[in-house]
Design brief:
The strands form 2 sheets. The chain has a 7-stranded antiparallel beta sheet with strand order 1-7-4-9-3-2-10, sandwiched between helices. It has a 3-stranded antiparallel beta sheet with strand order 6-5-8, with no helix packed on it. The radius of gyration is 19 Å and the shape is globular. By secondary structure, the protein is α+β, with helices and mostly antiparallel strands. It starts with a helix and ends with a strand. It has a single domain, classed as Sandwich (Jelly Rolls), CATH 2.60.120.620. The chain is built from 7 helices and 10 strands.
C-alpha cells in the first residue's frame, strides 16, 4: 500500500509541476566509467575547463549520439528510467528515436523543448483526441565528485497557455518572478514535459548531459518525431540501426510507423512551408569547438 501511495504521489507531482528528479541513477564506479567513456568519445575532458573563468573551454554537441553508437544503448535499456517514464506517462510509452549528447558549461536561456514558432497545435494546448505526452529524460554525467549545477524551471508551465512568446518559446513577461530551481548531481536524471520552461545555470566544470525523448504513440508524439527527423535536417538525425529497433521492440518501446512513408507524408504536409528552412550543411552534430 505504501508503494502504491508513493507512486501516486510521484505521478501527482509530475502532473502538477511537469518535472521529477531521479537521484543517484548510477553507483560511483559506473558513473566514473561512463564519464570516462564520454570524455574519450567527445574529446572534451575535465581539464579543458581549467580556464573556464577566463573563457578557455570546449563544448560538444551531437543529436543522435545514443542511437548511432552501440556503447551508449544501455541508457535506452535502463530499467529505472524506462519504468519511471512508464509510471508517469503511461505503460504504452515509446522512445521517439530522438536523443542528444552535450558537453557545455552553460545552457540556452529559458526555453521549451516542444515545437515553438510553428503551428499552435504543436504546443499541445489545443483540443485533441489524445494528450500531449512528449517527455524528456536528461541524464547528468560527470565525475562523481564534481559540483552539482542548478536547473531552473517554471512549475506548471507545461499546463498553461502563456500568451505571446518570442521565437524561442519564452513568454514576453518577467518570467523570473515564478522561477523555481533544483540542484542536479552527477548521476541524477531529470524527467520533464517537453513544454516545461527551463534552463540550466552556468558551472565551472563540464556539464555533460544525455537527453532522450519519449511519448505515447499518438498525434503529438508522431508530430514531434517527424518534425525533428525531417524538418530539422540541421540536426542530422538518422534512422535507428535494425539491432536497436529489435531491442526496443522487445521492451515494447519502439515507435511503430516511424519509417512509414505515407504516415510521414501525412504529418509533413502541414509543414510544407517549413521544409527547406534548415540547412543540412549546418549540422549541429558531432562537433567539438572552443568557446
Amino acid at each position: 500500500m505504501q508503494h502504491f501511495d508513493l507512486m501516486q504521489t510521484v505521478r501527482t507531482r509530475y502532473a502538477a509541476n511537469g518535472i521529477v528528479k531521479l537521484s543517484g541513477l548510477f553507483d560511483d564506479d559506473t558513473l566514473s566509467a561512463l564519464w570516462q567513456e564520454i570524455q574519450d568519445f567527445t574529446g572534451v575532458r575535465s581539464e579543458d575547463y581549467a580556464g573556464v573563468m577566463d573563457g578557455s573551454r570546449k563544448a560538444y554537441n551531437s543529436p543522435g549520439t545514443v542511437i548511432r553508437n552501440r556503447q551508449f544503448w544501455h541508457l535506452l535499456e535502463n530499467d529505472i528510467i524506462n519504468d519511471t517514464i512508464k509510471l508517469l506517462v503511461g505503460y504504452e510509452v515509446k522512445f521517439l528515436g530522438l536523443d542528444s549528447m552535450t558537453v557545455h558549461w552553460s545552457s540556452h536561456g529559458l526555453h521549451r523543448d516542444s515545437h515553438v514558432g510553428m503551428e499552435p497545435f504543436t504546443q499541445g494546448f489545443s483540443p485533441a483526441d489524445a494528450p500531449y505526452t512528449v517527455t524528456r529524460a536528461l541524464v547528468h554525467v560527470n565525475d562523481p565528485d564534481a559540483a552539482p549545477y542548478e536547473f531552473q524551471f517554471h512549475p506548471a508551465s507545461h499546463n498553461i497557455e502563456l500568451g505571446e512568446m518570442n521565437v524561442h518559446g519564452v513568454p514576453l513577461f518577467d518570467a523570473s518572478q515564478i522561477c523555481a530551481s533544483m540542484l542536479v548531481e552527477p548521476g541524477d536524471c531529470l524527467i520533464f514535459d517537453a513544454r516545461l520552461l527551463h534552463t540550466g545555470m552556468p558551472i565551472v566544470s563540464p556539464k555533460c548531459f544525455v537527453t532522450m525523448t519519449y511519448g505515447l504513440p499518438n498525434f503529438y508524439s508522431y508530430d514531434h518525431f517527424f518534425y525533428s527527423r525531417y524538418v530539422r535536417v540541421d540536426q542530422g538525425l538518422t534512422d535507428m540501426p535494425p539491432e536497436l529497433v529489435e531491442i526496443l521492440r522487445v521492451r515494447n518501446m519502439y515507435l511503430e510507423g516511424s519509417t512509414d512513408e505515407s504516415l510521414r507524408e501525412e504529418f509533413l504536409a502541414p509543414r510544407a512551408e517549413d521544409i527547406g528552412k534548415f540547412d543540412p550543411d549546418l549540422l549541429s552534430r558531432d562537433y567539438v569547438r572552443d568557446i
